[in-house]
Specification:
Helix content is 55%, strand content 11%. The chain has helices at 16-33, 48-58, 61-69, 100-116, 134-140, 164-180, 207-227, 244-253, 274-290, 293-321, 332-383, 390-397, 403-483, 490-500, 508-511, 526-544, 549-557, 571-581, 616-626, and strands at residues 4-6, 9-14, 39-43, 72-74, 80-87, 120-127, 148-152, 194-204, 598-604, 632-636, 641-651. The strands form two sheets. It has a nine-stranded mixed beta sheet with strand order 3-2-5-6-7-8-11-9-10, with helices on both faces. The chain has a two-stranded parallel sheet with strand order 1-4. The longest helix is centred in the last third of the chain and has 81 residues, at 403-483. The radius of gyration is 48 Å and the shape is rod-shaped.
């Protein structure tokens, strides 16, 4: 591909408006070329040192490398274009100090030739009011010093006075189009009293903002389906928590079996061991009941940990399934209802567990009281026997009427009391285990409720954040719509969206080139996340729909009933014709000779695209539209858009100056 050639340009300004115009030309050139142009500005009062420095900058290798990296080359075999911009209202009149413009341009020519060995083409642009003495300036700039003299003013060919910003913007557009467009730059001899009066208009390509607008619409449509799903959406995946009875059953199954109940031994204790027998039985009962406690506690803690982890994983899968991470996504609003339902189920189970725990605590208290009563009863029974000592035996021998009672308590009451104590110990151990189980179950219910509440809070925060993202996207969409030039408007944008959006994926993660879990959106500000999603989708659209400038125009003017723009629909050609006809030269219509010709140029990026490119069809239609119009010329331009340039040549002689004032 042949690189686009750019000339070196020097703008010399005289007067305030000329300096402002030169700045606007510089800014337009940077915008159109997407790189700093080979253009320098110089005030007419600047010295030779400033001019020499500018010459060195225009010849620097760094400038050439920068332009080459952007796809341009310097026209090294061409002349340097020197434009003298004169504000006739504020510049020094030409007759005040002789032929000052000619002397200035001669000095520039000499300096450029001496430092760069390049020829110079001199042009001049006069910014004047209709009552200014333009002829005097033309006389001062006449050939052979200046190749072409141009004129622009605030009153156009239709005798309409434009405000200063508007007419100066048109003049800047015209000058930038002449600098960088592929217009004929042949050296023409300037005849006396000949002026060229130009007008221009730019139609920047809306491709980038149009694709960004469509990307924003796609993201907002996907968000709307996620936030406000229709009734036809698939059923919400329901996470059913295990019932309280099932949890109690699994908790009981994972614990070691209860130890066997101690029984009254067939061999009774000796009489002399009866005082210590109560303490021995109590210790044995407590040891027997406590053998299961450590293993049961460890199993209970492990079960509680596994149940918590399992529920968190289950609820996390539920939330992930509802956040657009798969094709069955039902939307966030349904997820909120599902989480609310789960909170109700778990709250009911938690209340039931709390009641069962309270009952178990009461049962434990009763078992504790029974245990203490049986323990005291055994201790009192053992204390009623004779003390195993000489004095005790002598006292027993002196009370023979008590022997039947002692024998009854020894053979009958003692076994019953010991067995009651053992049963109370087993009941106490069972009540303690029962209370611990229900405490674990209640703790699990509270943990499950808390986890669901945390998920619900995150989903609520995500809903609010996505609403903020949607609001940010809406603001960006309004800004992009404002950037689109006519004929694009809200109606045409909505029509194009209605044609293209249904053919695109409807889910957010299918649109994004780098999808992430939706909850990660909370980590980024709404505006930044909106721009990120918009840029990702816009990049995909740019690859899917590589529109040219003319495609963007035809899309705006296509038949609303057609799925695709039809070559037979010439509405866009009519729009082009009307647009070029509205480009009026910036000077009142003078009395022109019959042979005066109006020049009309349409400058487009890549006038001769490859036949295999997406832009080939549009440019073929453009050439077919331009061929029957002999006054219309086509040329290429590096700007991403269309440029319309119109000028008329005004030629008078010195004798006719009074009859046909300029």
């Amino acid at each position: 591909m042949t690189p686009y050639l750019l000339p070196r340009v020097l703008l010399i300004t005289a007067g305030e408006s000329a300096a402002v115009l030169a700045g606007e030309v510089d800014a337009l050139s940077c915008e159109w070329l997407r790189v700093a142009p080979p253009l320098r500005r110089l005030a007419s009062a600047a010295g030779s040192a400033a001019l020499a420095a500018i010459c060195d900058e225009l010849a620097s290798a760094q400038l050439a490398a920068t332009l080459r990296h952007a796809g341009y080359e310097l026209a090294t075999s061409d002349a340097i274009l020197v434009w003298l911009l004169i504000d006739t209202q504020h510049a020094t009149p030409p007759g005040a100090a002789g032929n000052a413009p000619a002397e200035l341009l001669n000095a520039v020519t000499e300096t450029v030739w001496r430092r760069l060995r390049l020829p110079v083409q001199h042009h001049a642009l006069l910014l004047a009011e209709p009552d200014d003495d333009v002829a005097a300036w033309l006389y001062a700039l006449r050939a052979p010093v200046v190749n072409q003299v141009w004129l622009a003013g605030p009153v156009n060919h239709d005798h309409l006075r434009l405000d200063e910003e508007e007419w100066r913007g048109q003049a800047a557009t015209a000058l930038a189009a002449m600098l960088w467009g592929a217009l004929p730059r042949q050296q023409q001899e300037q005849t006396e009293w000949q002026l060229r009066i130009a007008g221009a208009a730019a139609w920047p390509s809306p491709r980038r903002p149009l694709q960004q607008w469509l990307a924003t619409q796609l993201v907002r449509t996907a968000l709307s389906a996620l936030l406000r799903p229709s009734h036809e959406d698939k059923a919400t995946p329901i996470a059913q928590p295990v019932t309280l009875a099932q949890q109690a059953q699994t908790l009981s199954a994972c614990q070691p079996p209860a130890t066997a109940l101690l029984r009254w031994p067939e061999r009774r204790p000796a009489w002399h061991n009866l005082p210590q027998f109560a303490a021995h039985v109590v210790a044995a009962a407590l040891h027997q009941a406590g053998r299961r406690t450590p293993a049961a506690s460890q199993a209970r803690e492990q079960w509680l940990s596994e149940q918590r982890a399992g529920w968190e994983a289950q609820s996390t899968r539920l939330v992930a399934a509802c956040l657009g991470m798969d094709a069955a996504s039902p939307g966030l609003s349904l997820l909120g209802g599902e989480l609310e339902r789960l909170q109700g189920v778990l709250a009911a189970q938690s209340a039931t567990a709390a009641r069962c725990l309270a009952s178990a605590v009461q049962q434990l208290e009763r078992s504790q009281e029974r245990w203490e009563a049986s323990r005291d009863c055994l201790a009192a029974l053992c204390a009623g026997f004779p003390v195993p000592s000489l004095a005790g035996w002598l006292a027993a021998l002196r009370q023979p009427w008590r022997w039947p009672g002692w024998l009854w308590r020894y053979h009958i009451d003692l076994p019953r009391t010991v067995q009651t104590l053992l049963e109370a110990a087993a009941s106490l151990a069972q009540a303690q285990a029962h209370e611990a189980d229900w405490r674990a179950l209640h703790t699990l219910q509270l943990s499950m409720v808390q986890h669901v509440q945390e998920q619900a809070e995150r989903v609520a925060a995500l809903l609010d954040h996505l609403d903020q993202i949607d609001a940010a996207l809406a603001r960006q969409q309004d800004q992009l719509a404002a950037q689109l030039p006519p004929p694009w408007n809200e109606e045409r944008l909505n029509r194009l969206a209605g044609q293209l959006v249904p053919s695109m994926p409807a889910l957010l993660h299918e649109l994004l080139s780098e999808p992430e879990p939706l909850l990660s959106a909370l980590d980024t500000a709404a505006d930044a996340r909106a721009r990120c999603w918009q840029e990702q989708v816009a990049e995909c659209l740019a690859q899917r729909w590589p529109w040219s400038v003319l495609d963007c125009l035809r899309l705006a003017l296509a038949d609303p009933g057609a799925a695709q723009p039809s070559p037979d629909d010439m509405a866009w050609c009519d729009w082009l014709t009307a647009w070029i006809q509205r480009v009026r030269p910036l000077w009142p219509r003078p009395e022109l000779p019959p042979n005066t010709r109006t020049h009309q140029w349409l400058l487009t990026p890549g006038l001769q695209p490859d036949d295999t490119s997406a832009a080939a069809a549009g440019y073929a239609l453009l050439r077919a539209w331009a061929e029957p119009q002999p006054q219309l010329n086509l040329a290429s331009h590096p700007m991403e858009g269309l440029l319309a340039l119109t000028w008329v040549t005004l030629a008078t002689d010195e004798e006719g100056r009074q009859r046909a004032p300029i």
